[in-house]
Design goal:
This protein has 574 residues and is of the alpha/beta class. It has 22 helices and 21 strands. α16 packs across α18. The strands form five sheets. It has a ten-stranded mixed β-sheet, with helices on both faces. It starts with a helix and ends with a helix.
Length: 574
Amino acid sequence: MKAEWFLHFYFTFVFVFINSFNSVEMKKIIFINMLLLFSGSMLFAQKSKPQNTQLERPKLVVGIVVDQMRWDYLYRFYNKYENGGFKRLLGEGFSCENTMINYIPSVTAIGHTTIFTGSVPSIHGIAGNDWIDAKTGKSTYCTDDSTVQTIGATGKAGKMSPRNLLATTVTDELRLATNFQSKVVGVSLKDRASILPAGHNPTAAFWIDDASGKFVTSSYYLSALPEWVNKFNDSKPIDKLLANGWNTLLPINQYTESTADDVEWEGTLKGAAKPVFPYDTQKAYSLDHGALRQMPFGNTLTLQFAKAAIEGYKLGQEGTSDFLTVNCASTDYCGHLVGPNAIEVEDVYLRLDRDLAGFFSYLDQTVGKGNYLVFLTADHGAAHAEGFSKANKMPTGFLPKDLESGLEETIEKQFGAKHLILGIDNFQVTLNKDLIDSLKLNINDIKTTAVNYLLRQDGIQYAVDQDKISEASVPAPIKEMMINGYNQQRSGSVLMVNKPGWLPAYCKKGTTHSVWNPYDTHIPLIFMGWKVQHGTTNRTTHMTDISATVAALLHIQMPSGCIGTPITEITNKK
């Protein structure tokens, strides 16, 4: 009303004022000047008026962790990727080409935890997939929780929770920042890879129960499976995926990035006489439901379920900024089975590339291109198989198979007591501190004996008392990784470091990971979508920077244990 009265008064005044002049030309000049003055005043008022803006966030954040994905897989198979998957990420997104893990051991549970907490085992407490608890002397699985029950199946597959996680995740922080209005969902074949990224209080987390072939959850999250999960499970998606067996996606002679189809260092799928295509997937699955994990169809199933979760919870479609965490785990299981240079691994990645293309297209259609933020990374890499390295004259070898028993005998002989070692796990020696104290033995002498024994073994490059890392003759970057990975309650007292390319004795077939070397710790990291401009950086970034970057983009607090920093090449380009 005030604006209307002002306009009425202004133009009445102008009309009277102009008519007070007799000259037509003068009237025209005054009218034009008054009109220009009015227009300028209105323009100034519009510019000066405060803008009624709101905080912008993407409708949906999708964090994809490709298990055991070495950084070089982005480019080794590049020419065979199609345009909608990895090539789209590289072509539209921002790639951090030198992203490194900054702790050891480099294993799945720690990787997923570090990505989403921005922290390290010393702080967030997830010291391995398993660890030996220093107080109880018992082996502890990272997400075990005897106080909860399986939801969606019988058995113990759902007796899991994030209670061993000591810090918050970026998914937790989004929930806290929005007063728990944002929805957070974790999806993986692996329990730990769904539970740890989703955080302490998500909407839900789901993983596969091998026995039933169904996605399940824990009573920590829900009292019953949502109807959309039951519908998905009841559709028997695994049967459909395995119906036609597993042959190469392309003619096998095009897999020029891989070794021959039958080499001695590859493991074999259940029911197969040799590691060669084609594979009878139904036979493998009938013998062991866990075999699904080793085939590319485990990734397909995971992304199918991720789509169902988006639809079931209307993620990114109800006015909140939601978060979906997805782990593609078949890359890890297949890699362990056959090693990085097998045709099987290449085929898994070529199929994953197409699955990702379909998933991104689905996000475009449901959430809208430009409305969602996606990042893709890995929890760790993998070493070349020992046989492959040996055949190609690369440094390699196996650690002694009697490493643990030999150390036990040496310590027993010197100190006159048995069971002073609880075990070796994560390349760490855990001592029985309570027994050592009760026998009034000097723990420092025992650790020194352990260090000296390990240094004499084939394949061991360094052995360090964890309490004396700063004094050890070890390169500074590796020292920092040791310190970051050492949790007093959950890590061993003595840490060993292999020579490059050396593997544990049990790894005669396929490969493994856990060490500091770039083949295990150089990982891909690409952001794409909402507010992300295309580009690359080759400066060193770290796994711990991922959650800090996501938090900065979302304008939320960093997780409670975060030691990373935002990647400003991404956060400053809006």
